[in-house]
Amino acid sequence: MEYNAKRRGFIKGAGAALGVAAAAGGVVALYGMKRTWDPLPSVAAAGTTEVDISALRAGEPTRVLYRKKPVYILKKGEGMPLDEKRDAVINGEAYTIVIAICTHLGCIPAWNSSAQQFKCACHGGEFNASGVNTFGPPSRPLDIPPFRVDGVKLVLGEEGEEYKRLASLS
C-alpha cells in the first residue's frame, strides 16, 4: 500500500513537471512566432513616405506613392466644405488625404476640378472632395492612410494624433 502511494506521488510530481515544461515551451514558441511576424526594422523604415505640404495649391490634389499605392492629398480651397470626420486640419488649413483606389473594383479615380470630385472611369463611381462616395457602385468612402503631421510635412505610414482623431470618428 505504501509503495502505491509513493508511486502515485511520483507520477503526480512528474505530471506537474511535464506541465510546467510544456507551458515554458509554449511561451518560447509563441515568442519565436511573434518575432517572425514583426516586420524587420529596415522594412518598417521603408514603409513611410514624407510629403512637404507647404507648397500645395488649394483645389489641386497632389498624388504621391505610399507603399506602392497612389495617395491624393488635396488642400481644400474656398467653397469646398470641411468634413470633420474625413478632413485633416493642419496649420489651420483643411486637407483630404485618401488612398486613390476606388473601393468598388480598385481603379484609380481622377480629380474633376470643375465638379470638385473624384470620378472613377471604370464604373462611374463618384467621390466628393473629402473622398466620400456620392454616386455609383462604390459602397464606402476612399480609405484614409495612416499619417502623422510633422510641422509642414506629412508622414504617411505613421499614426499621428490627427489620424487617430479621424479614425475614431469613422
Please name the defining characteristics of this protein:
alpha+beta; 11 strands; Rieske Iron-sulfur Protein; elongated; four-stranded antiparallel beta sheet; 170 residues
Describe the structure.
By secondary structure, the chain is α+β, with helices and mostly antiparallel strands. It folds into two domains: 2-38; 46-169, Rieske [2Fe-2S] iron-sulphur domain (Rieske Iron-sulfur Protein, 3-layer Sandwich), CATH 2.102.10. The chain is 30% helix and 27% strand. It contains three helices and eleven strands. It has helices at residues 2-37, 41-46, 161-169; strands at residues 49-52, 62-66, 69-75, 88-90, 93-99, 110-112, 117-119, 126-128, 133-135, 147-150, 153-156. The protein has a four-stranded antiparallel sheet, with helices on one face. It has a four-stranded antiparallel sheet with strand order 6-7-8-9, with no helix packed on it. Strands 1-11-10 form a three-stranded antiparallel sheet. A hairpin with a 4-residue loop joins strand 6 (110-112) and strand 7. It starts with a helix and ends with a helix. The mean pLDDT is 86.
